[in-house]
Structures are given as structure tokens and as C-alpha cells.
């Protein structure tokens, strides 16, 4: 059972911190990546993903802009292969950015998974990554499929579907973790959009 804890973000430069992604770095510190938003952020031409740092995962201090472009939302950040990756939805597709230290990211381009919504991938024991993604353009009964990669940029679809939404549901944001010798998937279920 989870219990709510006090949370603080010192130095928040905007009205809201949306779409949080928390990652532990190699030193064991917590990094929070989030969309820094005003009340009317969807009307703004440029969206900023900020990052904040914490020793305990409860009290964070703002560190600045990690990545900025038009229409960004939902950042997912992960270290892999000696660098940091950010997958973030922007401009109708998932784009990626990379960084040497996870502090400031450089735009890399669209992630070549058109029509698939992504979250951070899962590292496998053999050094590859597995990405679970949901079919974005299917209104109801959409699938969650998995993809494999050795570099975090090029992905190969695996055979089969991992999960399929009900006929009046849409699944989004599948997060997968290792659990008791197997795997556990967490996801959002919603009524299909009109």
C-alpha cells in the first residue's frame, strides 16, 4: 500500500509541474523531469521540460531547462549505453533527445515508431532494451506490442500482442517492471476519444 508523502519542488519557475518522470542516477540521487507549465501552456509556442534533483526523492530543487521545443508533453527519461535518452510526445509523434549527463538534451528527431505511444523501455539481461508501446491511432480495442533495440533508437517489432484493450476501451502508457521472477505491467484505461 502506498502512502502519500510530503513533496516539495523548490524554485518551480512556472505555475505547474506536469507529467512527472523520476529516475535514479548513477550516484543514487533522484532526478525529476517534468513539463513546466502555465495555466495556458497549450497556447504557448514552446514547451519546456525541466529537471530537478533530490537526495531523498521528496524534496527536489529546480535545476533548469533540460529540453525545449513546440508542443512537448509526457517526457520519459532513461540512461542507456553511456548516455541519457528522452522520449517525449511532440508534434503528433514521439521524438527523442539525447544528453551526455542528463542535464541538457539535444533534439535527435522523430522516433521511428509512428502510430505507437511509448514510455521508457525496460533493460534486459542481455544488454538490449524492450519497449512496450500502445497503438495510438486505434480508438478502441487498441493493442500493446513490444519492440527490441540495441541502441535505443532503432526498434524491431516482436511477434504477437502483449495486451489488447476491450472493445470500448483504449489503453495508454504501459509501464513494465520486473516482479517476482516475472513482469508486471501498469497502464491507463480510458473510454475511446470521440
Explain what you see:
This protein has 194 residues and is mainly beta. Helices cover 0% and strands 56% of the residues. It contains no helices and 17 strands. The chain has strands at residues 8-10, 16-24, 30-37, 47-54, 59-69, 73-80, 83-90, 93-99, 106-110, 116-118, 122-123, 129-135, 143-149, 156-157, 163-164, 170-179, 182-190. The strands form four sheets. Strands 10, 11, 12, 13, 14 and 15 form a six-stranded antiparallel beta sheet that branches. Strands 1-5-4-3-2 form a five-stranded mixed beta sheet, with no helix packed on it. A hairpin with a 5-residue loop joins strand 2 and strand 3 (30-37).
Summarize the helices and strands and which ones pair or pack.
Blueprint: E1 8-10, E2 16-24, E3 30-37, E4 47-54, E5 59-69, E6 73-80, E7 83-90, E8 93-99, E9 106-110, E10 116-118, E11 122-123, E12 129-135, E13 143-149, E14 156-157, E15 163-164, E16 170-179, E17 182-190
Parallel strand pairs: 1-5
Antiparallel strand pairs: 2-3, 3-4, 4-5, 6-7, 7-8, 8-9, 10-12, 11-12, 12-13, 13-14, 13-15, 16-17
Amino acid at each position: 500500500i502506498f502512502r502519500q508523502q510530503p513533496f516539495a519542488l523548490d524554485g518551480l519557475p512556472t505555475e505547474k509541474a506536469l507529467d512527472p518522470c523520476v529516475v535514479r542516477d548513477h550516484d543514487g540521487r533522484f532526478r525529476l523531469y517534468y513539463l513546466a507549465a502555465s495555466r495556458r501552456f497549450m497556447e504557448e509556442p514552446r514547451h519546456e521540460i525541466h529537471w530537478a534533483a533530490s537526495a531523498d526523492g521528496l524534496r527536489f530543487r529546480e535545476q533548469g531547462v533540460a529540453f525545449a521545443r513546440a508542443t512537448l508533453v509526457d517526457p520519459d527519461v532513461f540512461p542507456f549505453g553511456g548516455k541519457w535518452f528522452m522520449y517525449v510526445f511532440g508534434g503528433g509523434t514521439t521524438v527523442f533527445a539525447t544528453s551526455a549527463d542528463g542535464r541538457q538534451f539535444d533534439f535527435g528527431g522523430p522516433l521511428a515508431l509512428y502510430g505507437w505511444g511509448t514510455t521508457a523501455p525496460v533493460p534486459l539481461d542481455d544488454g538490449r532494451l524492450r519497449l512496450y508501446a500502445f497503438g495510438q491511432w486505434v480508438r478502441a480495442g487498441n493493442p500493446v506490442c513490444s519492440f527490441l533495440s540495441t541502441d535505443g533508437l532503432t526498434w524491431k517489432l516482436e511477434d504477437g500482442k502483449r495486451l489488447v484493450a476491450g472493445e470500448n476501451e483504449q489503453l495508454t502508457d504501459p509501464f513494465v517492471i520486473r516482479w517476482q521472477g516475472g513482469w508486471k505491467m501498469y497502464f491507463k484505461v480510458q473510454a475511446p476519444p470521440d
